[in-house]
């Protein structure tokens, strides 16, 4: 899959494609349905498929403090789009200039002059352009005069509710990982490289791998039973994700995981953490001693859980 960063990096050979536009945060089952149709149309027309995404996402640009936490970092989003068979991603910087483009200017500048789009695939609620004035009807009209077709994908629902990134966030906030998995079509996971921490964990008696998070905010916080994939091998563990109120004050999120029976060095390795069950909320403890007691109880709970779990059988 090819990544084109910015309109200015589009070349004449990029003209002619089928395209869709959106945030695609989490690449959930609704998104996957659109991507499936996009691939079909690309094959029919014999042109590449292109997904137009924005960085930052529009809500992050308009309201950085209140925009929801991302379900996946950009790197993972690109991997998921590649896995869905997308040929090209056009990643546009969402800035003042882009936010001011009218729906008509958006169509002219990006879709027609930039991409030479032949067919557009969108969700039925898709809105775009300054003040979100552009919609499916607008696109269809524009397509008639500018030579592209538009198709609205049917809404993907689960148990009567529209699948959405918001629903996935709600499921994670409720620690309903089974629902998150059904909405995503795969388990919710966070992947990242292991960084050096404050080296306090050893002092607390529980060594932890500090998984690098690229963003300050995360869609879930607390202490969880977790499993960790390292180079195709799965290990049972217990994870803490959040701001660590007892020890750190900068307010940014950390993900730390203790693997129950792992003794090797994990620094710089890439881990994938899957969450299974919430044990408790993060707490601010009065002393490191009290934190240590709580962590020991978490580890004991994790040990008891993983011993009795059928999942353990699948751990290689
Ligand atoms: C199972 C587990 C539970 C944790 N619970 C909390 C908590 O409730 N409150 C908190 O401030 N930190 C919590 N932590 C984070 C510890 O503060 C952190 O692991 C410790 O500060 C070590 O940090 P370091 O790896 O950067 O040295 C928890 C860590 C683990 C592994
Ligand atoms: N459940 C769904 N069924 C069909 N299409 C969907 C669904 N969810 C999102 N889409 C479509 O996928 C494209 C990309 O969606 P995008 O991520 O930008 O929308 P969103 O509204 O931010 O996402 P969400 O609704 O999931 O929070 C859009 O065309 C959108 O309409």
Automatic annotation (TrEMBL):
It catalyses: riboflavin + ATP = FMN + ADP + H(+); FMN + ATP + H(+) = FAD + diphosphate. One of its GO terms (molecular function) is ATP binding. The keyword ATP-binding applies. Keywords: ATP-binding, FAD, Flavoprotein, FMN, Kinase, Multifunctional enzyme, Nucleotide-binding, Nucleotidyltransferase, Transferase. Pathway: Cofactor biosynthesis; FAD biosynthesis; FAD from FMN: step 1/1; Cofactor biosynthesis; FMN biosynthesis; FMN from riboflavin (ATP route): step 1/1. Belongs to the ribF family. This is Riboflavin biosynthesis protein. It comes from Pseudomonas lundensis. The gene is ribF.
């Amino acid at each position: 899959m090819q990544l084109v960063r910015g309109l200015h990096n589009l070349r004449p050979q990029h003209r002619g494609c089928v395209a869709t536009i959106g945030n695609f945060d989490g690449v959930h089952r609704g998104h996957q349905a659109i991507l499936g149709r996009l691939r079909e149309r690309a094959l029919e027309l014999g042109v590449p498929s292109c997904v137009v995404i924005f960085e930052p996402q529009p809500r992050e640009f308009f309201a950085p403090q209140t925009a929801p936490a991302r379900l996946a970092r950009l790197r993972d989003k690109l991997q998921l789009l590649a896995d869905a068979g997308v040929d090209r991603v056009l990643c546009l910087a969402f800035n003042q200039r882009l936010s001011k483009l009218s729906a008509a200017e958006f169509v002219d500048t990006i879709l027609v002059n930039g991409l030479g789009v032949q067919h557009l695939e969108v969700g039925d609620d898709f809105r775009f352009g300054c003040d979100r004035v552009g919609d499916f009807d607008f696109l269809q009209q524009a397509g008639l005069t500018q030579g592209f077709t538009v198709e609205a994908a049917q809404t993907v629902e689960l148990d009567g509710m529209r699948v959405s990134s918001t629903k996935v966030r709600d499921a994670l906030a409720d620690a309903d990982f089974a629902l998150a998995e059904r909405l995503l079509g795969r388990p919710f996971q966070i992947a990242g490289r292991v960084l050096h921490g404050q080296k306090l964990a050893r002092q607390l008696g529980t060594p932890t791998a500090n998984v690098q998070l690229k963003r300050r905010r995360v869609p879930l916080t607390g202490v969880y039973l977790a499993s960790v994939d390292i180079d195709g091998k799965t290990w049972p563990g217990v994870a803490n994700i959040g701001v660590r109120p007892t020890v750190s004050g900068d307010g940014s999120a950390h993900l730390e995981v203790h693997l129950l029976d792992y003794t090797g060095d994990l620094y710089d390795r890439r881990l994938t953490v899957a969450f299974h069950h919430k044990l408790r909320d993060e707490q601010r403890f009065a002393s490191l001693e009290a934190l240590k007691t709580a962590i020991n109880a978490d580890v004991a709970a994790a040990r008891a859980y993983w011993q009795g779990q059928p999942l353990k059988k699948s751990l290689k």
